[in-house]
Description:
It contains 23 helices and twelve strands.
Amino acid sequence: MNARLLDSSPTLAGSTGLPVDVCVRALEARDARFDGVFFVGIVSTGIYCRPICPARVSRPEHRRFFRSAAEAERNGFRPCRRCRPELAPGRALVDAVPRLAHEASRRIAGGALNGRSVGDLARELCVSERHLRRALRAELGVSPLELARTHRLLLAKQLLTDTTLPLTRIAFASGFQSVRSFQAAFRKHYRMAPRELRRAATTAGPAVVVSGRGPGGLSAAGEPRVPAAVRVSRRDSRIPAAAGAPRNPSATGDLRNPAATGEMQVPAAAGLRSRAGSASASRNGRSNGGAFATDGPDALSLRLAYRPPLDWPSLLDVLRAGALPGVEIVDARRYTRLVAIDGHVGQLTVEPARGDGLRATVTTSLLPVLMPLIQRIRRAFDLDANPAEVDAHLREGGLGALVDRRPGLRLPGAWDGFEAVFRSVIESVDPPRGPVAARLIEELGEPVVTGVPGLFRLVPEAGRVAKAGVDALAALGLPTEAAATLVALARRCADGTLPLHPGADGGAAYDALLDVDGVEPRLAARIATRATGWPDLFPADEPALLRAAGARDPQELLERSAAWRPWRGYAALHLLLADAHRAPASPTQRS
């Protein structure tokens, strides 16, 4: 096999810089912290695995280490059915992938080459096509098209294994432009037909497609319920009409008739009305505890892996404190919201799954944008972080007591750049769940009929806020100065002059935000951290940080924070949560 061996040099090339002997020890120990950092191909079987694979450890001379699944497949290896490389956590920005390769790979993972050319992507990145190909080859060992094909095939493999969706829908949801190209690529690279994998998965056990359990996990009486999982039949798993197509209005709540108001609707069976419980929901004025019920056929569940640990309760606490009324619902265990991507509107619920993973349940109205949807979920919940490394570094920097209280704390991100702007500006003058936020969302957010009380609006779009103007926002209760700042930022977001997309340079975004009238450093840091995912922005003038750290002034805190770089964003969240809970621990205490 003409494989490009990463063990031909003392360290793994690319972003990890891991010595080969470290990879060998991690593989033999099945260390979960290295899951997704590298992959190992076994020459004798032609299969590549994650370092945590439960299969018998291979002979050293049969191993070939690769930086990515795409590189392993390029060299002729096919994915293991036991450890399932498509579930491996991805790499985060903090893994130091050179910026161009990282941004290109991020966009490709989100479907940037689905129906588009490498030249189109290169123009978006303001580089030549040749330079883009060279950068990806140097950093990941594959071409842009090879990387895109691997992402499509791995997503298709996951859908074949974990769902009962028809092959046609799987092909298009995975980014292939035709069923024929999907089947040809699958046969060529995995040496089997898609139906063969589907039959093997069916024999191994039932697929989990629809959870039958709302994000609250409650019955109409408020008691926990655990209904059986159900399969999606080919007949019932048709993609519903466009998200804006009229459907029967919900019987619950006081939602208006969408046919008369032009409101959008998401598929009723996907959490908008429980077939078994709609009548009782109507009588009680709520649906299944006010939660997203998924006992209909139009919902799809996927598992998203992460590197442990993950402090899910603290993450939910942060999301709950900032939940936007009408857009999000956060209960004791689950997070639910309405989302819109490229005109496709639907519901999303995220909750813990068995093992080191989360389960995302989405309406099938979002199936055409499944690749970018998965990417946004991973970013919103910071699933590509390496918490063991972050926590160890913060402990060394004197935050041991706080880290031990919340190991695996994650930095939640925003759904998109303007949502980060909207949240941050509102928080600066009013609690996110306060009356001002509610009025703004009610007036400017696109209405969506769901049948779930408390879930009926999308976050206002930048163009709509910019068009409303300062006076309209002030009339809704937003202070005039804050309204002017929000409108100015909305205009910059609408015309694309603010670099607030995931993977953008956090420092550049911060500087660009400071150039906008009314944006002060604390607000700029909040927006840039949420929008770009940059983990090192640190608003040293935040009063809560000063209190929690016991610092006399911002300069002292800024000097102290140097020990927490490059993950000062995580340190800031630890301190903010400590202040919110009146934690007595001093950040100077070393563990």
